[in-house]
Amino acid sequence: MQKAHRVRREIARLMVKPPEGVSCYAKEDSTEYILVTIIGPAGCAYEAGVFELDVELPERYPFEPPHVKFRTPIYHPNIDNNGRICLDLLRMPPKGGWKPTISLENLLTAIRSLLAHPNINDPLMTEIADEYRYNRFEFEYKARNFQGESKRKRDINSINVY
């Protein structure tokens, strides 16, 4: 009951006054599944990109962190090809930084910030982190074009041939 009340309150707050570049809503009036859209921050390789995320709140939320996954493919050192995110706020202590006081707004703001400031010291995709570190121009080119290429591939794969 406490979880449902907190989630409704947090979503209502996010709908009234969302953080910059973030929008979300409960999936089918659920208190367990939230759909999120993040606009890439200005001044980075993901600028103006539109990224969809799934957020699943565990039964013990806020005492356990949400499960967050990118639905939109992204070329990023801390996000793998399955959309999983390497971010300390998504892990329980002692290795992670999750605390029950962290709100969905704080978490989504941190994920959006991760787009502009990848953590190459704790990468999920080491090759991309190395590219970010040693060939920033190539990294930024791939990151800017990855979403468009992925969308074109999805569009091509969804065409029905008669």
From TrEMBL:
Give the first-level EC class, as a single word: transferase
Pfam families in the cross-refs: UQ_con (PF00179)
Q: Which CDD domains match?
A: UBCc_UBE2T
Q: Which UniProt keywords apply?
A: ATP-binding, Nucleotide-binding, Transferase, Ubl conjugation pathway
Q: Known EC number(s)?
A: 2.3.2.23
What the record says about family reads:
Belongs to the ubiquitin-conjugating enzyme family.
What InterPro entries has UniProt attached to this entry?
Ub_conjugating_enzyme, UBC, UBQ-conjugating_AS, UBQ-conjugating_enzyme/RWD
Q: Which GO terms describe its molecular function?
A: ATP binding; ubiquitin conjugating enzyme activity
Q: What is the name of this protein? A: Ubiquitin-conjugating enzyme E2 T
**What residue ranges carry the coiled-coil annotation?**
none
> Which SMART domains does this one have?
UBCc
Domain UBC core intervals: 2-152
> Which residue positions are annotated as catalytic?
86 (glycyl thioester intermediate)
